[in-house]
């Protein structure tokens, strides 16, 4: 997660999240292919204005593209229906299953676009702070989450070291879950000890729920305007396409 | 700040950590706590910080009280932060004290300036070096405006230049007459000069309570018997150290006697380019190592010393020609390569693969031999913990085990990433002894270190890495002459070298106490 200087990044994170959730709800409640397409285009506009340069964006979308094709194939080839188009072995593509495949795969893609838009334009600290102020998230939980975020790079480094150590010490596992346990066990034990220490350190710095805030996101008129604009576009797409 | 008849026992232990302790510390005093590891120093600090028994579960009896607010700085730089950026982290302390937001904007830059950090407020904490993190942690504690500042080995996890900066900051804080300082520190040389009082702990009891001079000079024998690291010079200076004192004998020790370096080539590198991600660490690196050579890699933080080791260990890709025994690296299979080459990681936690110490040693033997495992357990003093999980060991035990796993089979090359870092004097001595034996047996030992005393006494060859090239490659004594180079790479000459040099100057001058070497 990161923050950049696109207009989307300036919107209050809680408002932005609410807006994206609203579009997602609209997507779930429709079974019309046209509406889903229209909302996907809206989501695509969002992800294109999230500040990632096009080559970078396409690179990040590659795994989701594969997922799109897989979903499409699964839904199309194994679906039910009577109007048969093509059969081969177990695969049986019907008109109904093809329609269904388009719907589900496009819906999935729209979800991916919406989530990426959010991730690309939101700073985690500001997001959590916004949840505290706008959604009344308990402070202890919020700061615990923020402290936990710091573990991600630490974990990455630790996993790398464990892999290297296994290589140097010529320990190959026969089954994949053995590798999983070999990596996760030391990771868990060390992170329990470390999180305890961080908790003690936070406590020692007089952590309390009664506090002032350095970062205090507020809901501006611009946020409301934006929310109104996007939700009305989405609603009209849902209702009138 | 005082406590009377204070006893502390942790729930999972039979005997108390602190036993009937009565201590009064005056306002504005600077107190140094010393004692062997496990003697209860840290627990005492936690009690003073008010963390026991509310935050850390423990059985506490007796009376204790502190006047004013307390701030505590911990040993691990990484485990004290909960935010992502420098500004937000300091703000976290201010938020807790309910300082208004407008005031935070003014205070944060002032606090950063006070600890000598010149950083943008949006700098991610993950990008800072250990020394900078610890200074930031100090700024966060100072943001609480404490009357009492507790410091738990603040420099133990830092490199020498980080240690010096931190100690200067602490000395400056000591000058504040209203601030009470309580400090646990193993780098006694740097803080003994400004401490008002020294408390010596031994298995939960107060053994000595006196001025630094009395403790470290008069009671020297008692302290040595406890295995506590002693200051190298105190109470003398480099030039006033009496020739016959124990410290002088220690400093006079010349580099150890050893066999000549072998003639058999181990590694041979021609025009190698070492990279980490997209960053080039070394360009055009040509190098030959020989059997029975002890090479130490030094350089400033982030210069890429560990990356060089990982490249030699065939863990990172490289461009150019690297050969071991005249065979290119890519022609070696992993199986045969790691029979010849051992690697000791900086963090021992992540190199253990088995559930018990015995198993850990057993998988390190080429053929399983219980007899050898038992001998190794004894040799590395791990017999008592043979059935425990390697992760449950103490720091020193972990380090000994990690070295043991690599040295059970004879290796042609042993690569070590800061093996003595953060270890107590005893473990360091033990590891160095083991490595010395391996070297005598013909192993090429290549290790990254910050400890210049070790470089002086043991290195056959020292390599300074920095700014994408090898800045120096030669003997330690040659390196110590290169003043500009040392300074540029944040390296310091060891006290033992300085003393010996001074002695030599005195000797040449033919008279004592008049010569000034620098």
From TrEMBL, chain B:
Annotated SMART domains: AAA
Q: Does the keyword tRNA processing apply?
A: no
Pfam families for this protein: ABC_tran
Q: How does it sit in the membrane?
A: Peripheral membrane protein
Q: Which family does it belong to?
A: Belongs to the ABC transporter superfamily.
Family matches, as PANTHER family: ENERGY-COUPLING FACTOR TRANSPORTER ATP-BINDING PROTEIN ECFA2 (PTHR43553:SF27), HEAVY METAL TRANSPORTER (PTHR43553)
Q: What is the official name of this protein in its record?
A: ABC transporter
- Recorded source organism is Exiguobacterium undae
């Amino acid at each position: 997660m990161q923050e950049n200087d696109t207009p989307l990044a300036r919107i209050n994170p809680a408002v932005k999240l609410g807006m994206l959730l609203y579009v997602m709800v609209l997507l779930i409640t429709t079974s019309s292919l046209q509406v889903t397409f229209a909302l996907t285009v809206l989501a695509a506009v969002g992800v294109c204005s999230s500040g990632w340069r096009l080559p970078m964006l396409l690179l990040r979308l590659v795994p989701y593209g594969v997922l799109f094709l897989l979903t499409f194939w699964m839904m199309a080839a194994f679906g039910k229906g009577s109007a048969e188009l093509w059969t081969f072995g177990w695969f049986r593509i019907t008109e109904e299953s093809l329609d269904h495949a388009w719907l589900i795969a496009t819906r999935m893609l729209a979800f991916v676009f919406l989530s990426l838009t959010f991730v690309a334009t939101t700073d985690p600290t500001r997001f959590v702070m916004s949840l505290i102020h706008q959604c009344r998230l308990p402070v202890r939980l919020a700061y615990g989450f923020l402290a936990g975020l710091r573990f991600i790079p630490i974990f990455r480094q630790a996993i790398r070291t464990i892999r290297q150590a296994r290589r140097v010490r010529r320990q190959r596992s026969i089954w994949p879950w053995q590798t999983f346990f070999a990596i996760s066990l030391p990771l868990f034990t060390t992170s329990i000890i470390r999180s305890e220490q961080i908790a003690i350190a936070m406590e020692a710095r007089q952590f309390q729920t009664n506090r002032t805030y350095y970062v205090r996101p507020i809901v501006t008129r611009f946020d409301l305007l934006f929310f109104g604009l996007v939700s009305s576009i989405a609603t009209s797409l849902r209702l009138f396409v | 700040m005082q406590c009377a008849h204070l006893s502390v026992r942790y729930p999972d232990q039979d005997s108390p950590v602190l036993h009937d302790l009565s201590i009064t510390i005056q306002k504005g005093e600077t107190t140094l706590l010393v004692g062997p590891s496990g003697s209860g120093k840290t627990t005492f600090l936690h009690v003073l910080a008010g963390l026991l028994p509310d935050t850390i579960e423990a059985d506490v009896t007796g009376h204790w009280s502190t006047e004013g607010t307390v701030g505590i700085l911990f040993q691990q730089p990484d485990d004290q932060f909960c935010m992502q950026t420098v500004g937000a982290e300091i703000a976290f302390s201010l938020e807790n004290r309910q300082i208004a937001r407008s005031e935070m904007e003014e205070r944060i830059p002032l606090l950063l300036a006070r600890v000598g950090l010149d950083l943008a407020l949006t700098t991610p904490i993950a990008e800072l070096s250990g020394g900078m993190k610890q200074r930031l942690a100090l700024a966060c504690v100072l943001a609480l405006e404490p009357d009492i500042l507790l410091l738990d080995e603040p420099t133990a996890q830092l490199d020498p230049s980080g240690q010096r900066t931190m100690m200067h900051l602490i000395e400056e804080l000591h000058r504040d007459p209203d601030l009470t300082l309580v400090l646990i520190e193993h780098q006694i040389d740097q803080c003994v000069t400004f401490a008002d009082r020294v408390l010596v702990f031994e298995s939960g009891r107060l053994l000595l309570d006196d001025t630094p001079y009395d403790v470290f000079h008069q009671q020297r024998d008692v302290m040595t018997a406890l295995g506590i690291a002693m200051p190298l010079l105190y109470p003398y200076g480099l030039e006033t150290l009496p020739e016959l004192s124990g410290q002088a004998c220690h400093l006079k020790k010349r580099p150890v006697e050893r066999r000549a370096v072998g003639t058999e080539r181990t590694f041979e590198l021609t025009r190698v380019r070492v990279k980490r991600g997209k960053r080039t660490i070394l360009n055009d690196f040509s190098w030959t190592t020989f059997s029975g050579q002890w090479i130490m890699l030094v350089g400033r933080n982030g210069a890429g010393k560990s990356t060089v080791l990982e490249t030699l260990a065939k863990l990172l890709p490289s461009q150019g020609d690297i050969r071991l025994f005249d065979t290119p690296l890519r022609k070696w299979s992993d199986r045969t390569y790691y029979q010849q080459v051992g690697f000791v990681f900086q963090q021992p936690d992540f190199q253990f693969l088995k559930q018990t110490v015995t198993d850990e040693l057993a998988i390190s033997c080429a053929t399983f031999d219980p007899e050898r495992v038992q001998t190794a357990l004894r040799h590395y003093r791990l017999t008592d913990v043979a059935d425990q999980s390697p992760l449950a060991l103490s720091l020193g035990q972990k380090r000994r085990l990690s070295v043991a796993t690599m040295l059970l089979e004879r290796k042609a090359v042993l690569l070590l990433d800061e093996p003595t870092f953060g270890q107590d004097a005893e473990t360091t001595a033990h590891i160095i002894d083991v490595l010395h034996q391996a070297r005598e047996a013909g192993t090429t030992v290549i290790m990254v270190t910050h400890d210049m005393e070790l470089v002086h006494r043991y290195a056959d060859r020292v390599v300074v890495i920095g700014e994408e090239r090898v800045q120096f490659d030669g003997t330690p004594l040659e390196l110590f002459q290169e003043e500009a180079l040392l300074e540029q790479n944040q390296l310091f000459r060891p006290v033992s070298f300085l003393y010996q040099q001074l002695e030599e100057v005195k000797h040449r001058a033919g008279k004592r106490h008049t010569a000034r070497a620098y």
